[in-house]
Amino acid sequence: MATEPLKRFSTHDGPLARPGAPADPDTAPLVLRTARESDLPELRRLDQEVFGEVAYPAFLLRQLYDMYAEHFLVLDDGTGRLRGYVLAGTSALRADSWILGLGVAHDRRRHGLGRELMVAILGRLRRSGIKEVRLTVEPGNRAAVLLYRSLGFRPEGPDGGLRRDYFGPGMDRQILHLDLAARAAAPQG
Questions:
Q1: Under DSSP, is residue 8 helix (H, G, I), strand (E, B) or coil?
Q2: I want to staple 75 with a disulfide (CB 3.0 to 4.6 A). Which of 43, 83, 104, 136 is the partner?
Q3: What is the DSSP letter of 56?
Q4: First to last CA, the chain
């Protein structure tokens, strides 16, 4: 598994232009940046590609952007196409957050991009004072479960975090939890 090179920008208006020839979407480094309002149509397209019939409706994606823009990161290939995103919804009252979406374009999977997105958002959440992060994952999505476990997420009890019919009949999910406060306090090795 090769890791793709990323350029990181953390503002809504970070530079995207690369010197020289137009970007080749297969070889140019991706830019990891905060989502922009102008990204919404492309975010909708990517979300549909990744999640199909359970993708967010356009109106909800819009409202999630309005509510959580500072915790909405994208991977931009420099050609107008987004190749991945992560979204965290945060609570102002309880210093906790939910990962509401993590998606990588099918042709960019297995290159470490999901990990890059998660590491970036977890760092941003930690700096924002978030103490706990939760997410749901389809129990049979082995790659996603392994990714989240490698980042320190653990099943939330009871029953190993398994919630039957969480999103409706036959749509089971496992709830995973990460204690960012404890992880930040632990010695880094």
A1: strand
A2: 83
A3: P
A4: 23
